[in-house]
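Dear colleague,

Thank you for sharing your sequence with our group. We've completed the structure prediction you requested, and as agreed, I am returning the results in plain text so they can be pasted directly into your records. Please verify that the sequence below matches your submission; if there's any discrepancy, let me know and we will rerun it promptly.
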Amino acid sequence: MLEGIGFCKIADLTFEKITGYNPFLSQLFRVQIAYSKQMPDHPDVVIVKIPPVDKKIRVKEAGFGPYVGELGSYRLLDSFYGASIARMYGAVEDHVERTVAFVFEDIGVLPEGQKYAKIDLDIARATLDFMAAFHARFWEDSELERATWIRDADWSFLFNQNPLDSALGWQVIKDDDQFEKTGGLVVAGEYFGARLNNLRAPMGRRPNTLTHNDFHQGNVLLRQTPNGQQPVIIDWQMPAFAGATNDLAKFMMTAVPFEILAKYEGNLVAHYADNLQANGVVAYSFDRCWRDYRQAQVVTFGNYATSCYETSPDGGLIESSGDSTHAVIKALTLADPVELREILP
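Please find the predicted structure tokens below.
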């Protein structure tokens, strides 16, 4: 794969299993390369991402489409290589299994003790610049709509989870004293259950585009450049041809720090909407974007609520969610409850 950027000869490889290793989906390694013949563009370190070794698990996971989804996304986004997404040096696809092995650029490691990239206001805006750019490029793209490797908008609504489970999740959250139940959070939580299905139709009426669909804080890394830090979005395994505000809501709720969100939420959504227009999407106003964003926030919360609990030994339900769920819960406390009631069908 590396010979695609010039002839090289590899003398030795050192493999390191890295964070993100998931034997039920993919194995992730940082690989140090020692060359006996190397050109200036050849990297000394790459990330290798391969399917699991167990064939039964591998074929089962492949049936959900994560490998071909990531490859399809990367093929479309090649102009962003080495910038807002990691460079893909190559990929080997098994067309029968629908699995893919990748070699990616290494963005580097987070400072010790830091779990996620630190997002400030400038990084948040730069991330929204990229989001608007790739959304605009594939806005209502009829060819993408027919592609077999990408999921559809209906799947992206709760990722095919049962809306009734969201009501159980809300009950667990409501009973947990660690969460402050104020603002739009309560309106959204009380909406969960069968009523959540009422959002399926309006969410389906949004203009569709290429969406990352898993734009949470763990999938945003930072590239060090001479001009400062640049956001890099990884793990394109869940792409969907769906409404753009799926990505907007998840990024704003999970990755933008609460103190920035509380002060700049409206400005950031307007920044995204302005960039869509600057990239050629002229028939999508800020007002419509804002409404779609609020509705997508509720669906995003519903998605997290369906998996935020587990059954205790005595048969009860206990809260078992992670950082992204907690961030989503807190973000919705900022929503105006009156406004939210008005936009929920």
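Summary note from our side: The longest strand covers residues 27-37.

Kind regards,
the structure core
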